[in-house]
Design a protein that fits this description.
This protein is an alpha+beta fold. It has helices spanning 22-35, 46-54, 56-63, 73-81, and strands at 9-12, 15-18, 41-44, 67-70. The radius of gyration is 13 Å and the shape is globular.
Length: 86
């Protein structure tokens, strides 16, 4: 399993989204479960991105999560427009 830090992060209106495939994300979560340590995973959707525009604390929580994956076709589309693999 590749280290998370080796994956590119995309900036979608100030919100960090990891450029991981579904398979990579599932492998990483399985690894975290095996390790027994807590990790924050965010499924970033368009509503989250818009809410983060006006709420710095929410934006910081998203940007500090261990893994942020795009959730919904709007974020998948934005990710692809930025060169992502989602």
């Amino acid at each position: 399993m590749a280290e998370l830090t080796s994956w590119r992060c995309l900036d979608i209106l100030g919100v960090r989204v990891h450029d991981v495939t579904l398979s990579e994300a599932l492998d990483l979560v399985a690894e975290w479960v095996t390790q027994g340590r807590p990790h924050q995973l965010a499924t970033v959707n368009p509503e989250f991105v818009m809410a983060a525009q006006d709420n710095a604390s929410f934006r910081a929580a998203l940007n500090n999560a261990a893994l942020c994956v795009p959730d919904g076709i709007g974020l998948v589309w934005a990710s692809r427009r930025l060169g992502g693999r989602a």
